Amino acid sequence: MEERKKRIALTWAVVILSLLVVGAAIAFGLIFGLKSSEPVANANMLEAGYSRAYYSLTDELNDMSVNLKKIDAISSAKTQQDMLYEVWASAVKASDNLSSLSVEGEGSVKLKRFVNQLGDYSKYLAKKSESLSKEEKENLVRIGDMLSEVAVALKGVEDELTSGRTFMGDDGVVEKVLPTVFEKFNEPSVEYPTLIYDGPFSDGLEGHKARNLDGNEFTPELGEKKIRAMFDLTENDKVEFMGASGGDLKILSYKIDFTKDGETFVSITQNGGKLLSFVRNADTETDGGFTDDELINKAEETALHLGFKDMKSVWVERVNGVGYINLALVDDGVIIYPDIIKVKLSLSDLSVLGVDATHYSLNHVIRNFDFEKIGSQDAESVIDGRMEIERVSLAVIPYGEYSERLCYEFKGNIDGGDYFVYVDAQSGEEINVLYVVNSESGTLVL
Amino acid sequence: MKKLSIAMSMVLIISVFAFVVAFNVPEVCEAAVLKQGSTGTQVKTLQTKLKNWGYYFGSVDGIFGAKTKTAVISFQKKNGLVADGIVGAKTAAALGMTLSTTPTTSGYSTSDVNLLARLVYAEARGEPYTGQVAVAAVVLNRVKSSSFPNSIAGVIYEPYAFTCVSDGQINLTPNSTAKKAAQDAMNGWDPTGGCLYYYNPKTATSAWIWSRPVSVTIGSHSFMK
């Protein structure tokens, strides 16, 4: 009897103990399972993101290299154009995927640049809508060959992936494999074709020098003297030389400690000591109720004091207690938009909070445009007939990356919307249209 | 499961408080007020937050009605605020909301300026003002460069490009200085003269970036092309 009781008690003990163990296991699983399932899912999603970028990149590179080979055989301008637009679209996607892979190193930067440049170049060629020249075709074939090399090198990574290696982690593909693949495009043996064309990513821009860099070379001491004069500084205001930057465009940087207004950093060109820019912050909570004319006068006065003559206000904008006034050079009645200066004023007390003269200081030259070949009435016949014209003037505007054009600027109104239309004064071609967006606190040109 | 979600809401509320205490979100000082009768996207945000945290059971319709008011009152009671059912500066801060009265201003997208301001605040809030404009200018120089994505969001969210994205500081609410710095860069100011990179020599870990010549040093950041 005793024996039986003991056995029953033992059985119960075993049952209770097992239940406790199972319960603990479930609780443990729930707590840690719940806790860990989320990070695992997140990591898997990131891994999937990398995979998507990798496979799409390989696809786009292949597509581009095949399409570039096809272009070599196409003679119709229209079909070439279609194919070039396809290359452009693939390049945009490939660049996006390259960014998502975020591989560190010079090789990756160069490859990204190359892919973006190819897209830009293809778009430029497509827009030209003429048959491609022999040289252009040769360039495209060489690029196609390079891209297929990248695609093959990337394809090699697939073996690593199928053998279970992941993208993320210290030993992952992103950290350990892809940098080696991309570094090949940083070797001296890789010859990138030089692409000079009128687009933002053209190789020609790298050697593009500022046009206005004559003048004496300024020593740091001479620069300080110039800055003290520009800002009417007293002996108590401290000026500290921060260093000179190298490259084609040598810049001297200074830090000014104003006795009253805190500090700012100013940069000038080493040649000629021309002001590039400075900017500072101030409390602009209270509005001083200044009119646009007061802002314009102050901005033009400031420009003149800094040595920029004949500057006229072309735009005024008010944002968060600050007025931004854009001034352009007006030469013999022609508005020279590329030589622009921006002045930042406090709307509380009209104090000058910044000047950006980079465009003027690096760009300004005396321009010799041929006289306009067409009259303003002929130019007017080109623009949309519904436009009610308010003002016509001659203006020089930037065109493409390298050139400028002399234009008739028509300011007018179509169906209540304000527009600026630019008609080339030599060719009579409509080359740009700007639409003015009015918002509650300012007006800007888009 | 319900307990878990309550626990999670508590964690969320505590972290919101920690955030408010630690960074003292300055913008809410200028905040407007949301109360019964208010409508719009800010009310939607409010309702979504209250719903997620288990205070509101109505629909997220952007209309501040009786149900929303009850939810606000219970949120205020729980969080030691004056339980008046009106979302003012303090309640907004506790909710992690910014009720800005500043109208949208510029022709380019205001969300671009806001995102840029968040990056400036997260990356350079202790820097001199010019250094903050410089960080914003680097982002815009990257947008224009062929070696980087061609949008502000693309550049900022490029993986591992900015540490503040990895550590989550990009989600902090920027102060007015960061906003002004972003605005100046958008208007064309570039104290770096076209730089694409910067690092803090004291904390940088990436080796290859050191090989580039420094163009300009502003505050604790060295800027490079």
User: What oligomerization state is this entry in?
Assistant: heterodimer
Number of domains of chain B: 2
Strand content of the residues of chain A, in percent?
Answer: 15-25%
The rough form of chain A would be described as: extended
**Mean pLDDT across all amino acids of chain A:** 85
Largest interface: A-B, 57 and 47 residues
Biggest sheet overview of chain A: 13 strands, mixed
CATH superfamily of the largest domain in chain B: Cell wall hydrolase SleB, domain 1
Distance between the termini of chain A: 99 Å
Helix % of chain A is: 40-55%
Low-confidence stretches of chain A: none
Structural classification of chain A: alpha+beta
Description:
- Chain A has helices spanning 2-73, 77-101, 106-128, 134-155, 157-162, 173-183, 220-230, 292-305, 358-363, 376-382, and strands spanning 238-245, 251-258, 262-269, 275-279, 311-319, 322-331, 334-346, 352-356, 388-399, 403-414, 417-424, 430-438, 443-445.
- Chain A has 446 residues and is α+β, with helices and mostly antiparallel strands.
- In chain A, strands 1, 2, 3, 4, 5, 6, 7, 8, 9, 10, 11, 12 and 13 form a 13-stranded mixed β-sheet that branches.
- The longest helix of chain A has 72 residues, at 2-73.
- Chain B folds into 2 domains: 2-12 and 22-95, PGBD-like superfamily/PGBD (Muramoyl-pentapeptide Carboxypeptidase, domain 1); 110-224, Cell wall hydrolase SleB, domain 1 (Arc Repressor Mutant, subunit A, Orthogonal Bundle).
- Chain B contains 9 helices and 3 strands, in the order H-H-H-H-H-H-H-H-H-E-E-E.
- In chain B, strands 1-3-2 form a 3-stranded antiparallel β-sheet, with helices on one face.
- In chain B, strand 2 (214-218) and strand 3 form a beta hairpin.
- In chain B, helix 5 crosses helix 6, helix 5 packs across helix 9 (176-186) and helix 6 crosses helix 9 (176-186).
- The longest helix of chain B is centred in the N-terminal third of the chain and has 22 residues, at 2-23.
- Mean pLDDT of chain B is 76; it is low at 1-31 and 100-107.
- The chains are: A alpha+beta (446), B mainly alpha (225).
- At the A-B interface, helix 2, helix 3, strand 1, strand 3 and strand 4 of A face helix 6, helix 9 and strand 2 of B.
